[in-house]
């Protein structure tokens, strides 16, 4: 199957999940996670109007940004080191992975320098897995409140990477908990904070995530095939 055929399969499942949940398809952005994959595979999707792509490494995002049309939306979904913020501050449309006030401060400072407003999500380690980045659910509100005081940075919502499970139903509560957390934080009405974005769901579990309120799903393998890290 071609990349575009894979994409259409995923798109169909996104539509079906929206239907089951009584949601409009427009409420959910399907992000094609192109990390480790060549520009040529991204280019297969461009004639079909696909504009949202996800990368987890700054260097890879900027390299692809340079050679592809400038009207694409680049989502930085991986862990971000503070010394690399300056390279993507005006290239990423949304940074999904903010999990400390120090990182948020750096993003704010670089955004001020470039006279842009950075849009970010706070990454929550809902399942409290040792191996994962992200703040705990308990720490999230405090971090959002601290970030809300910084200039040139807007918190658009929350992101989580759910555990790897055989049966996606096992992650339903993780997604539900993230949604509930975002509703609680939205009610606080912090400055520069909206909780309209819920970035959750990957190849193995995006349908359940949509049923539980995801507004962005990040699908890599399902669109581009397995990744090969050996090269
Ligand atoms: C790689 C990655 C994805 C996509 O994973 P797949 O299982 O291949 O769909 C989604 N989110 C993040 C943060 C990732 O690093």
Tally of separate helices: 9
Count of domain modules: 1
Radius of gyration from CA coordinates: 17 Å
Q: Assign the structural class, choosing from mainly alpha, mainly beta, alpha/beta, alpha+beta, or little secondary structure.
A: alpha/beta
Brief summary of the model shown:
The chain has 231 residues and is of the alpha/beta class. Helix content is 39%, strand content 19%.
Secondary structure: elements and pairs:
Layout: H1 3-20, E1 29-33, H2 39-45, E2 52-55, H3 58-67, E3 73-76, H4 85-88, E4 92-98, H5 101-114, E5 118-123, H6 137-147, E6 153-159, H7 172-186, E7 193-199, H8 206-211, E8 216-219, H9 221-224
Residues 33, 35, 56, 77-78, 161, 202-204, 218-222 line the site of pyridoxal-5'-phosphate.
Written account of the structure:
The chain has 231 residues and is of the alpha/beta class. An 8-stranded parallel β-sheet has the order 7-6-5-4-3-2-1-8. The mean pLDDT is 97. The radius of gyration is 17 Å and the shape is globular. The chain has 9 helices and 8 strands. The chain has one domain: Alpha-Beta Barrel (TIM Barrel), CATH 3.20.20.10. The structure holds pyridoxal-5'-phosphate (PLP).
């Amino acid at each position: 199957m071609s990349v575009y055929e894979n994409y259409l399969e995923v798109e169909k499942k996104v539509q079906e999940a929206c239907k089951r949940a009584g949601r409009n398809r427009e409420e959910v952005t399907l992000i094609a996670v192109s990390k480790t994959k060549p520009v040529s595979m991204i280019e297969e999707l461009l004639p079909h109007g696909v504009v949202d792509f996800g990368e987890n490494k700054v260097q890879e995002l900027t390299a692809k940004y340079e050679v592809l049309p400038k009207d694409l939306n680049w989502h930085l979904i991986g862990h971000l080191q503070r010394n690399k913020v300056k390279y993507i501050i005006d290239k990423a449309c949304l940074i999904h992975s903010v999990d400390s006030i120090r990182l948020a401060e750096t993003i704010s400072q670089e955004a001020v320098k470039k006279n842009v407003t950075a849009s970010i999500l706070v990454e929550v380690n809902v399942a409290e897995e040792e191996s994962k980045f992200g703040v705990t659910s308990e720490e999230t509100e405090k971090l959002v409140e601290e970030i809300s005081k910084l200039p040139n940075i807007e918190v658009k919502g929350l992101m989580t990477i759910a555990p790897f499970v055989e049966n996606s139903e096992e992650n339903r509560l993780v997604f539900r908990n993230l949604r509930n957390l975002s509703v609680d934080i939205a009610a606080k009405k912090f400055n520069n904070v909206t909780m309209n974005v819920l970035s959750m769901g990957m190849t193995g579990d995006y349908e359940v995530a949509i049923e539980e309120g995801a507004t962005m799903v990040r699908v890599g393998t399902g669109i581009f095939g397995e990744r090969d890290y050996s090269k």
